[in-house]
Task: inverse folding
């Protein structure tokens, strides 16, 4: 039988993978995707809890997470577009205006 | 002397008295140039005229025991301490209103002529209106704080107007001097206010309102009251040019003559007297202070008079005589005759303004010449000025049935009847000297043969009507304004009754009319002798005028004003500037800047080390962040 | 609405055992586990582990593929698998929303932007940094996992009522206790729209 | 249990079969119809042993054969895997959408009650939209994978257009959902069995003789919603007048320039399957689905009193027949549209979607909500 912590561990692993993406990818779009992945890991946790504790709040929270994720993706992509316009590149490591 | 509880009535008209001049001033400030110089001046004069009309109306309407209030809004409110921006008019204020707006109006008219050829007349009228506004604030404010605002405001305007012709460096110096000396006085004044508020607050009464103060000052202990009153009097001495703070007033003559007439003779310098009268309920509780005031007043009167004897600058003479007259007023205050002091303020406003304006008209005619040795025989050239000047001189000298006669004799009689015989004798001598130096001036300026140089003599002329009209009015005033306060053996004083509701019944004993008459006769004698002395010396050509050879040591001392300025310069100004320059040269650059820059430098050194953490690469930051999170997680895992 | 009272009570009470995927899933699991006598692992676990494996694989692809479009497709796959997981967790409504919002809208937006910018060159990779990041993330997983294995975590889900995870249930709690956050979320989305327009607009 | 699973499978297979065949038939209808409209003879060449019955049978068989036997060309610079994946992604959503559309009421077999609907989901209509939104991938990926400027342009256009119109479509349906108070399509259809007379508020009772006898179909309760939904749906199918993503005259063939053979067939079939799905949805939401006016479980009950009882099995067949006929009608309507209306310009498409359909849909929602609050 599947217990709660199976889901939790699964989401932890997915989250970690998303973190890898955020840390190492050198393409802003993929970094954004990895963030979406992390958000999904969290959503999975929410749903698992709401199922195993039998309360609707988890699902509602997922609803809100989705709203926030949508907003975040939209803004992020807009920023990426304008950045790409100015410097024909998507590499976050080339954007170091704040370097010492 | 407890006054019947005055009935305070709300009355919306009052606020317009100060506001109209303020609005006119603001309007001129922004649109005056566009308006055209003549129109701007007319507007300013009209504004003051309007508030003069209001003042008359209020004066006639005001019931004997009434106080009219006009509260605009609550200005400060902290806890139970509340200060409202509100005006009040009672008998005392009404009188001051008449003086300020009336004399102010006349002097505005006069200025239209006097400043006709000046380039930035507009600025002049802006300042003048602003001064009227602040002066009205001062006399109408119903609590100490508003009075203080007006107090500072008139100080500011006086500074601005003294330095009005700022192209001449000396004028600006004179302005600064006036301002700084006033600061010293104001410092004492505001300290007095602080002490008063805090001490009353300790009793549980947080207020600055005059009426409430009058009810509650009883609960302060005498020592405190003495301290407060002394501090307040320091302020008054500063503003009203008493010893030892009188030095600014003579220099203040650097300003245009109308300014000298309005601010430095008629209104502002009497603010100190007004303040003491306004707070009489406080002062009469401090006999020690009153004694001090009386002594200082008498001393000032005498001292200034002695200086005035030998001055050759027409305005300087008047300036010192002003100081001396102010001394008289404070002498009256000192003997507890506040009503009489205000009465002298009233009469003095007329004849001193008249004198100043007359001198102004002379200076105007001579194209800026102020040295009396270069005048003389002007009688024929400018009759109106001469006759008005003569009247005013008689008035200040105290010739019977002129204003000066009534007020000054009243002061002397009060002093005598108060039992201060020494002070009375000083006053008596001063009266003689007053007569002397005034007639000396009259003779030097108007009589004898004309010593005016040819160039100026060419266009020697009587002043235009707009200037002479105020002279006439003021001259009339300097005769009849005194009749309000006639002594008992004549038709008796209206004045006392008018001010009783505010100042209470003065304790002048009109018991021995005979004594009073004797005193008066004595004064007359002194006056006449002073006149004879002047007549003998100066009636003729004024040959030895200003011949410094004549007269000995005393003459030199008097001529050099007792070296007071030099003394202050040595004792106070130089050490002060030396200290300041020391701070500026040593402390500020080395200690203060050193500290500040040192801190900054240290910070920068460290930042130069740490800033290498800032790679500007967002992923590095994320990695750091993750590391921290990992550490926290590991810690909690350990806790599990 | 009024349509319901036209249907005779005969069909009203009749249970429809197999009318949505969740029920299929449980029926099928029971059938299969009844068929093959596998006590050790029932169908639910099989499906879970299957989905979990696929999910992990697709997520790894998202992170380690070099071509942006491939990453996007892998992410879409991952999202769909997560949606299926939601459905198996009795959250069909959220699952559908997941497909609509994430797969249907957000990822399409991603693809749209990718096509729009069409970055030609493959990204370069730096071995050291990759290793470092990976190690950090693995450490994270290793720290998180033991924290989740708690004894008092409920092993078995509560018996789900018929309406659990239905739109009605979601709507009830969303529009009663969470109505304020709901409104705020709408405002947030509006702000995001405006911001996106302003940011991406080519200034003239 | 086994039986239940079997029934489900049968239903699914049946629906799938129907849809695919309908798609094929539509292919033929499109040719014949266009020929009719353009006054040509149309497809009449393919013949089997000299038998060309209007070309229908032949077209059904010959078309797939032709496509399947053509060379399947993959552009060498393209992305092989995605290029192969794209057609499936285009076809899949169109097919699975039909799972929630009910094609009949319950069927009683012995003691079993079979709901004539593949999946009874309480999120029904949302499922439809979810699947519809997945349809975009086929285009975008196909366009990108074939590494061709024209197809890329087509892909970009397609994705933008589909996203835009999904919003309008979804919002236009909400009015209907509010009226019938459910998301589940079978329930919506059942809700349309009643008569408008039963819904009239008291102050409108004088209208009863005029419109009281009408069935409470969506088209009568939400006419505006119907127009909006139908327009948006046609735009979703990317057919003329909304065929900007393909636009032969500008983009050769848009996102499937580089497709040939079986893959193109899949795109093709996907397009027609979408037509069928749209027709099914319009029928279900606005035209009473399988409902025939006045026909209840046990026969006809006319509002003027008369009734005509029927055996249950006959009723079921009538209903399924009615559904099929309605779907056919709307498929034909779309084809008619495609051959009669000229193509929009791209900016016109966008303006229509964002500046007309969207505000109108919102207004429709508000008005409906006010109505419901006021009279229920």
Result:
């Amino acid at each position: 039988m599947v217990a709660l912590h199976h889901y939790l561990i699964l989401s932890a692993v997915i989250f970690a993978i998303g973190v890898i993406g955020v840390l190492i990818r050198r393409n802003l779009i993929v970094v954004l995707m990895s963030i979406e992945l992390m958000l999904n890991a969290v959503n999975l946790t929410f749903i698992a809890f709401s199922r195993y504790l039998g309360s609707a709040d988890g699902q509602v929270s997922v609803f809100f997470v989705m709203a926030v994720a949508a907003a975040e993706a939209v803004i992020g992509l807009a920023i990426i577009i304008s950045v790409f316009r100015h410097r024909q590149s998507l590499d976050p490591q080339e954007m170091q205006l704040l370097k010492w | 002397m407890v006054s019947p509880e005055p009935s305070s009535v709300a009355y919306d008209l009052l606020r317009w008295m100060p506001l109209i001049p303020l609005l006119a001033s603001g309007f001129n400030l922004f649109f005056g140039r566009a308006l055209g110089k003549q129109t701007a001046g007319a507007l300013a004069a009209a504004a003051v005229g309007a508030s003069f009309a209001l003042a008359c109306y209020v004066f006639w309407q005001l019931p004997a025991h009434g106080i009219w209030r006009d509260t605009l809004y609550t200005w400060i409110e902290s806890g139970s301490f509340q200060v409202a921006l509100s005006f009040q008019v009672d008998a005392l204020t009404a009188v001051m209103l008449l003086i300020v707006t009336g004399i102010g109006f006349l002097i505005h008219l006069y200025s239209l002529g006097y400043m006709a050829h000046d380039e930035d007349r507009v600025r002049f009228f802006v300042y003048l209106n602003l001064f009227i506004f602040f002066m009205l604030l001062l006399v109408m404010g119903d609590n100490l704080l508003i009075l203080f605002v007006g107090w500072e405001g008139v100080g500011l305007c006086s500074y601005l107007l003294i330095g009005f012709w700022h192209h001449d460096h000396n004028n600006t110096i004179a302005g600064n001097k006036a301002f700084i000396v006033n600061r010293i006085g104001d410092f004492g004044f505001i300290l007095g206010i602080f002490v008063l508020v805090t001490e009353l607050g300790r009793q549980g009464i947080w207020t600055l309102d005059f009426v409430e103060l009058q009810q509650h000052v009883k609960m302060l202990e005498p020592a405190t009251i003495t301290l407060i009153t002394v501090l307040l009097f320091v302020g008054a001495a500063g503003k009203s040019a008493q010893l030892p703070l009188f030095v600014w007033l003579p220099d203040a003559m650097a300003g245009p003559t109308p300014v000298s007439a309005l601010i430095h003779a008629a209104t502002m310098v009497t603010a100190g007297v007004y303040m003491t009268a306004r707070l009489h309920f406080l002062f009469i509780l401090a006999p020690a202070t009153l004694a001090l005031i009386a002594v200082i007043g008498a001393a000032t009167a005498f001292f200034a008079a002695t200086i005035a004897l030998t001055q050759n600058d027409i305005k300087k003479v008047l300036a010192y005589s002003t100081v001396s007259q102010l001394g008289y007023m404070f002498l009256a205050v000192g003997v507890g005759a506040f009503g009489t002091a205000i009465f002298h303020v009233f009469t003095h406003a007329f004849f001193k303004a008249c004198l100043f304006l007359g001198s102004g008209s002379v200076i105007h005619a001579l194209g800026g010449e102020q040295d009396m040795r270069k005048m003389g025989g002007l009688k024929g050239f400018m009759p109106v000025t001469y006759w008005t000047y003569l009247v005013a001189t008689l008035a200040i000298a105290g010739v019977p049935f002129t204003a000066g006669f009534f007020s000054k004799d009243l002061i002397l009689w009060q002093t005598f009847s108060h039992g201060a015989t020494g002070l009375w004798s000083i006053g008596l001598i001063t009266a003689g000297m007053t007569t002397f130096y005034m007639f000396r001036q009259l003779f030097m300026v108007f009589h004898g043969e004309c010593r005016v140089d040819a160039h100026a003599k060419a266009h020697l002329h009587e002043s235009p009507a707009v200037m002479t009209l105020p002279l006439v009015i003021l001259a009339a005033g300097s005769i009849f304004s005194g009749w309000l306060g006639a002594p008992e053996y004549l038709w008796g004083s209206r004045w006392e009754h008018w001010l009783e509701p505010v100042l209470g019944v003065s304790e002048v004993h009109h018991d021995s009319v005979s004594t009073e008459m004797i005193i008066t006769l004595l004064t007359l004698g002194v006056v006449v002798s002073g006149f004879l002395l002047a007549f003998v010396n100066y009636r003729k050509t004024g040959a030895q005028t200003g011949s410094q050879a004549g007269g000995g040591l005393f003459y030199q001392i008097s001529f050099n004003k007792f070296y007071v300025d030099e003394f202050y310069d040595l004792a106070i100004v130089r050490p002060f500037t030396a200290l300041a320059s020391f701070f500026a040269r040593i402390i500020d650059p080395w200690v203060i800047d050193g500290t500040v820059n040192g801190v900054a430098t240290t910070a920068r050194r460290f930042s130069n080390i740490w800033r290498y953490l800032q790679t500007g690469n967002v992923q590095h930051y994320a990695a750091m962040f993750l590391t921290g999170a990992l550490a926290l997680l590991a810690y909690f895992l350990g806790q599990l | 609405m009024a349509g319901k009272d036209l249907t005779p009570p005969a069909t009203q009470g009749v249970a429809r055992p197999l009318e949505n995927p969740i029920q299929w899933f449980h029926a099928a699991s029971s059938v299969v586990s009844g068929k093959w006598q596998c006590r050790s692992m029932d169908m639910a676990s099989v499906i879970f582990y299957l989905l979990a494996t696929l999910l992990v694989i697709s997520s790894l692809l998202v992170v380690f593929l070099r071509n942006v479009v491939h990453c996007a497709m892998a992410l879409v796959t991952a999202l769909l698998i997560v949606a299926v997981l939601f459905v198996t967790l009795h959250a069909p409504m959220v699952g559908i929303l997941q497909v609509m919002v994430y797969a249907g809208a957000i990822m399409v937006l991603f693809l749209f932007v990718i096509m729009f910018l069409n970055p030609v060159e493959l990204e370069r990779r730096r071995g050291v940094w990759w290793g470092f990041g990976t190690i950090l993330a693995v450490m994270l997983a290793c720290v998180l996992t033991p924290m989740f294995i708690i004894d008092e975590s409920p092993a078995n889900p509560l018996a789900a009522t018929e309406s659990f995870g239905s739109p009605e249930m979601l709507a009830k709690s969303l529009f009663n206790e969470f109505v304020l956050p709901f409104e705020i979320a709408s405002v947030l989305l509006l702000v995001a729209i405006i911001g996106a327009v302003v940011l991406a607009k080519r200034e003239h | 249990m086994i039986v239940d699973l079997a029934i489900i499978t049968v239903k699914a297979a049946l629906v799938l079969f129907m849809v695919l065949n309908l798609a094929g038939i539509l292919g033929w209808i499109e040719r014949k119809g266009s020929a009719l409209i353009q006054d040509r003879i149309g497809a009449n060449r393919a013949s089997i042993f000299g038998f060309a019955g209007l070309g229908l049978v032949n077209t059904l068989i010959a078309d797939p054969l032709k496509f399947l036997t053509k060379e399947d060309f993959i552009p060498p610079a393209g992305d092989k895997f995605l290029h192969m994946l794209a057609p499936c992604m285009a076809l899949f959503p169109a097919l699975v959408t039909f799972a929630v559309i009910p094609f009949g009421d319950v069927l009683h077999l012995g003691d079993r009650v079979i709901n004539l609907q593949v999946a009874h989901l309480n999120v029904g209509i949302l499922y439809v939209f979810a699947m519809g939104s997945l349809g975009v991938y086929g285009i975008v990926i196909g366009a990108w994978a074939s590494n061709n400027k024209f197809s890329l342009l087509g892909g970009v256009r397609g994705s933008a257009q589909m996203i835009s119109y999904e919003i309008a479509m979804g919002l236009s349906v909400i009015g209907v959902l509010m009226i019938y108070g459910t998301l589940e399509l079978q329930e919506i259809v059942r809700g349309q069995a009643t008569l408008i007379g039963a819904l009239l508020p008291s102050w409108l009772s004088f209208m009863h003789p005029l419109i009281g006898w009408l069935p409470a179909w969506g088209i009568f309760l939400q006419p505006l919603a119907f127009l909006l939904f139908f327009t948006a749906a046609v735009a979703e199918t990317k057919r003329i007048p909304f065929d900007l993503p393909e636009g032969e005259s500008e983009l050769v063939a848009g996102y499937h320039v580089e497709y040939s053979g079986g893959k193109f067939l899949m795109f093709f079939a996907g397009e027609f399957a979408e037509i069928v799905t749209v027709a099914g949805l319009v029928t279900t939401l606005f035209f009473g689905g399988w409902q025939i006016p006045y026909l209840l479980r046990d026969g006809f009950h006319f509002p003027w009193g008369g009734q005509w009882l029927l055996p249950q099995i006959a009723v079921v067949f009538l209903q399924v027949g009615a559904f099929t006929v309605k779907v056919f009608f709307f498929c034909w309507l779309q084809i008619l549209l495609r051959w009669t209306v000229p193509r929009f310009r791209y900016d016109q498409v966008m303006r229509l979607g964002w500046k007309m359909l969207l505000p109108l849909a919102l207004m429709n929602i508000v008005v409906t909500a006010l109505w419901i609050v006021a009279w229920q």
About this structure: The first helix of chain C runs from residue 9 to 13. The radius of gyration of chain C is 23 Å. Residues 163-204 of chain C form one domain. The helical segments of chain C are 9-13, 21-35, 43-64, 68-88, 92-117, 127-148, 167-176, 179-200.
